[in-house]
Design goal:
The protein folds into two domains: 3-82; 110-167. Helix 2 crosses helix 4. Strands 1-3-2 form a three-stranded antiparallel sheet. It is mainly alpha-helical. 54% of the residues lie in helices and 10% in strands. The protein has helices at residues 3-7, 12-30, 43-49, 54-67, 83-98, 118-130, 132-135, 155-167; strands spanning 110-115, 140-144, 147-152.
Length: 168
């Protein structure tokens, strides 16, 4: 920066851009923000470029307020998310934790497509869901156009079960 720019306080927009840049750098280096909770945490950076003043502090505070960033459970700013997005993520987390949900990697998952007329798809899905012994052979059933898509970890077992049902 040239000397004439360093003498006056930066605009709110300049402060916002610098704050976002600082937080993105922190994210790249650490994986998450572990240092910045409030406007005062950014002041050392801004004071190294601009003369220390109450106006500079207020400008940085305005920039923080304007960015309207959510904070994590430890009070650190979260970059690149709106408060609403973070609220949705927290709600999803709460539901997943209450129900002991967990992701299943797809390396062992195979799919089976069962061709059906569209007007039968929903009804047949309901029937499959009522057969308790069959539920153990698939992870989920996905209703699609023209049929059902089963995701399973044991393709042969599920195919045998479906073939037995067809042959009844």
């Amino acid at each position: 920066m040239n000397k004439s720019t360093t003498r006056k306080n930066p605009s709110r927009e300049v402060c916002e851009n610098e704050i976002v840049r600082i937080l993105n750098t922190e994210l790249k280096q650490s994986g998450k923000n572990k240092h910045f909770r409030s406007a005062s945490d950014f002041m050392k950076y801004f004071e190294s470029l601009y003369p220390t003043s109450g106006a500079l502090v207020k400008q940085v505070q305005r920039a923080i307020k304007s960015l309207d960033m959510p904070k994590d459970k430890d009070g650190f700013f979260i970059i690149n998310k709106t408060k609403k997005q973070y609220e949705y993520e927290c709600e999803i987390s709460k539901i997943l934790n209450q129900n002991n949900s967990y992701p299943i990697g797809n390396s062992n998952i195979e799919s089976i497509f069962l061709n059906l007329p569209n007007d039968c798809v929903q009804y047949v899905t309901g029937l499959f869901n009522k057969i308790d012994s069959l539920k153990e052979s698939y992870i989920t059933i996905i209703e699609t156009n023209n049929g059902l898509l089963f995701l399973t970890e044991n393709k042969d077992l599920l195919l045998d079960e479906i073939k037995k049902i067809i042959e009844l």
